[in-house]
Design a protein that fits this description.
Tetracycline Repressor, domain 2; DNA-binding; Arc Repressor Mutant, subunit A; 2 domains; about 220 residues; elongated; homotetramer
DNA sequence: GATGAATGAGCATTCATTCAT
DNA sequence: GATGAATGAATGCTCATTCAT
């Protein structure tokens, strides 16, 4: 019997080597599959088939499909945060952090396309057994998935206002606009693999710089 | 036997009054349901149940589920275009059209929340039998769904550059950023019904005005 | 879409002829199967197979397995009550009703063996989704399944005491002893088809007559 | 490799202390679980979980689930016989043995409720791989499980007739009625924990005394 | 002694779809 | 126009069992 605990934190949390390897393999195959056929068509059976294991193996390692989905999302968020948080921390000004946020996010998207497509699909398609989307469920669970919280750019806009770098602006709204504009790269990339995501990132840096910085008289 | 033709164009295209009414009723119920439980859980059976008709009635009026989905999306796009296109046409400058595009789009989202939630869900979740998303399928079908095309803001940015109103900018990228930033309102609204979508619209007007207009020296 | 309502009362309650026929056929096959392999092995698939229909047909007519089980049990109880209640009503004395209860019950068991075996198996094996046995669930449902209540012999023992026919006795305990002693015929019959259930009934009449009637000094 | 032999006789038959302890622990947990969720829901996995061991440990100690079930039933029967047989042997008359049989059986039921519930559930629900109930399988196996045989009250009724204590009566039928009436206490107790099983036993003593003893003219 | 890993068969249930009426 | 009936494929999940370590 395996497939309990659930958490995505704590490097492997007591799992054996074999288990960690299998879990990683299954998560990887699931991401690829979601990518190719969409989350709606990514059944446990097809995931198992793609991983070359029996369907029951998947459910041996993940208590149910929801756990698998959470593992996928957790994995990707952690990977993303690992890239983005240091990049942001390296900057001191709000404008610097903002640009670092955008650039590191788009670099991640560009180099982790399957993961990015998968997470966008899962976030809109997947519902927990209680009918909630994953982010809604997460916010109801007290443990607000530190990674998700830290990846919300609202803090940057608030900082910029406190320091006077930015014009007076509604930080939460700019955060929403920025986050979804970034998602636009994922959307576009999944339709056009030749889309230049990094250039798009630079354009977003320009847009949000122009849109947020204090106007010189 | 009914349920052929399929197209969403032409006011009811030869359909009887009863038929048009039934189709509208079913489409309406489907939108409500997608809204409540997500597209993944919106089966033909549940849609029929909600409409108070037999499951087979739904498939009498729509050849298959894909046709129903196309009807839903077509319906909403037409409704949206009916509001947005005149608003844009009433403006002469690119900046005016841009503001009108954003404001009319957010007004539509704000007053047609179920439709907006549904379309966002369908666009990411639904795949045709060949495995394509609806917009991908539409662009492959030569008939590129006039409405969809007209609602792409890329033309506005191109216009603004031709007239010199806007700074030199990559129009397609700004179009992506704008479209997805607008979608951000739908996302947020579906999590927080008290979100002020119109104020968000005004902020987007500000952001994209700052971000696109020619800088005065 | 079928398979709603649920109740076993009201002769066919609005169902079409075809539906009533299919339901009856499926219930019949289920009884036979429970009889042969035990309730634990009586899966929906095997029931359908035995009925010569697709598995989904069973679940088209019964919302889920629990509904099917309830239909089976309800059916048998109604049939049993139809035989037993008039037999008891025809007697005036408590002793007469008691003998009629036992004889009609054993006559029913003897002539409806598969049904009797099935109901005994279901009553001990089956649990509702909440983990309750069927009789426990029924008593929690306010609607205490009139048939079940009327088939409880406790009233007879109470009557006999009020009329003075019977010795002072704890009616509920005698009712339990009687009901389970009658079940003994089902148990025995399922092991030895040659067991003389009617003679056993006569012996039970003797036992419970001797055990309950007022002792002459 | 362990888990062969199978028999429930012989005090632990060559097993080590650890092994006997583990088997006893698993059997105990299985009884508790059957008690709580019913035999149908008592999977090997859940039994192992409750015992705090790996699923494979259960199947290391018992060749398969059937062996575990046999061990459970054997255990309980032995325990029951240990109480009941001496109680009966202490009496000389058939009436005395009869009363002792009933009283000791109900005392056992009252003080070993989980065991009693479990055995009733298993006896009706469980089928061997050949589709037989456990008692049917036992009688086909020549080795008729001494305990089971000795716990059949038919001998008492036969004795009572030979000695003239009892009226002419069909001993096997009274045995069936008595055994199942006793089971009635288990049934009732599992629905109502406050049921007075010992008083019920006294009532059964009365009933079967009245029902079997030779009538004085 | 004990267990982690794997597996295939089976489970109840849901699905979009077909078709005769 | 509408529907009841039926269906096969697929869904997520549980099961007892095997086996190498």
């Amino acid at each position: 019997m395996r497939s309990s605990e659930g958490g995505s934190s704590g490097a492997g949390g007591g799992r054996t080597f074999t288990e960690r390897a299998r879990r990683a393999q299954i998560v990887g195959c699931a991401i690829e599959l979601v990518n190719e056929v969409g989350f709606g068509q990514a059944s446990v059976a097809r995931i198992a088939q793609r991983a070359g294991v029996a369907k029951s193996v998947v459910l041996y390692h993940f208590a149910n499909k929801e756990e698998l989905v959470r593992a996928i999302v957790g994995d990707i968020f952690v990977t993303g945060a690992t890239v983005m948080l240091p990049a942001m921390a390296a900057e001191e000004t709000a404008a610097g952090k903002l640009a670092a946020y955008i650039r590191s996010n788009l670099a991640f998207i560009n180099s982790h396309r399957p993961e990015s497509f998968a997470i966008l699909d899962i976030m809109t398609s997947f519902r927990t057994q209680e009918g909630l989307r994953l982010d809604e469920a997460a916010s109801r669970e007290a443990r607000p998935t530190a990674e998700m919280a830290n990846l919300d750019p609202v803090g940057i806009f608030e900082l910029g206002q406190r320091t006077g770098e930015f014009r007076p602006l509604p930080a939460p709204m700019l955060a929403i606009a920025l986050r979804t504009a970034i998602d636009g790269a994922v959307w576009q990339l999944s339709r056009d693999p030749d889309f230049d995501a990094l250039a798009y990132g630079e354009e977003l840096v320009t847009i949000f710089d122009l849109a947020s910085r204090r106007q010189e008289p």
